[in-house]
Amino acid sequence: MKTIKPLILSAGLLFSLIAGAQDPAVSYQVDPAGFSELISSDSGIQLLDVRTAEEFGGGHLANALNIDWYDSTFSSQVAALDKTKMVLV
Question: Residue 35 CB: number of other CB atoms within 10 A?
Fold first, then answer.
């Protein structure tokens, strides 16, 4: 889990910048325990994995959506996410 934590935190920051979340209430960071609690307690979330397809194929969290950060369509794919649901990166 220690190797995943930096990815989650940095990816969350990148996502908030891309999504234009400038209000701190819109984007926040949680520790691994809080992240685990959120994904197990809320079925209305969108779980986003921004790694490459190869990295995603090597293992990922259940129900995660893979949108590769390096893909040229990343911004449009992120824009298509349901804005009424929480997104965990």
Answer: 21
